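The passage that follows is intended for readers who have already worked through the single-chain material. We present the inputs for a multi-component assembly, then the predicted structure in tokenized form, and finally a short commentary. You are encouraged to pause after the input and sketch how you expect the pieces to fit together before reading on.
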Amino acid sequence: MPVRVQVLKKVDFGNAGCSIPLGDFPNMLVHLGEWLQHNSVVVVLNGTAWTAAATEVVHYFSMFVLVGSIAIVDLRVLGVAARSQSASLLAERLFPWMWAALALNVLSGFLMFAGAALSYIPNSTFHVKVTVVLLAVVFGVIVQWGVPKWDHLPAIPAWAKLVALVSLLLWVGAIIAGVEVPALSGIG
Amino acid sequence: MHGFLLSLGHWLQTRSFALAVAESEWAYPFVQATHFVGLSLWVGTNVALDLSLLGVGNKHQAPARLSAALLVWNWVGFAIAITGGFLLFSASASMYVTNVAFLTKLGVLIPLALVLHIVNQRKVREWGFNPDPPFVAKVAGATELLLWLCVVTAAVLIPYAG
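Having made your guess, compare it with the prediction:
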């Protein structure tokens, strides 16, 4: 039975030095990571097989709904999907699921991160993943904000299509970065 | 049956494309990512249809029109997902054919969910012109949603069952 729980050890928060060799990575972040990773709720949820598996299920399922919903809207803006209806109608339909899924995805992802925070904090592939996801969310907001305006124009402008394409590529990039985290570093 | 599956698994696993996926440094994660991109389109559009059958979010559009709009990319997603999934399976086929979570996923849950999905996609053309679909449509939508959740659960349990 794979168990994510790390070996518990005493953490002295009064001590500025860190017992784990992480180079010159900021101590504050490391202390936050130690606190998270040893937090009793995090330890129980990540250390119990069924809650750890349930967290993963929520993370995957919400990721599919999140990426699927925004991808369809992006593809519609690009003019290659669902041309039988307006982009704003489709966006109105799918964006609520996208944001709900994002909330579940962030929540479950945070719990998985917290369970091995000290491994994730200094991991450069994980930094790339988080950066790409944040950029993708920003582009998601731009698309949601833009779609009703673009729909009132005679044709969706080229720059709007570029925004949609970047949004789509960022989500694909987020998935690639996501699978590269365990592939390159063995965490997760 | 067990011996047959094992020898089939071994045969598949030693094909050159399967060895390429299993042994390449970069191919395996990219095939995984392909599987997930396909699943995003597939599951994302399935969930949208199921929620619509449940009567959620139908204020401006009936389920039948949503389903028609999503149909093409729904199946594009499915095609991408099975291509990636088949390659992932090939890379360690003899492990998968003896894994109870994988066998449940592929042998029971996916066929059930897939059949119900096809039924829903056809029946939405009669159920789905009202923003508040009939009771049978709601049951069908909720069941399909639950089945896909079970499919993902079985997939997550593969390493636990190994």
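Commentary: The mean pLDDT of chain A is 87. Chain A is about 75% helix and 0% strand. How closely did your sketch match?
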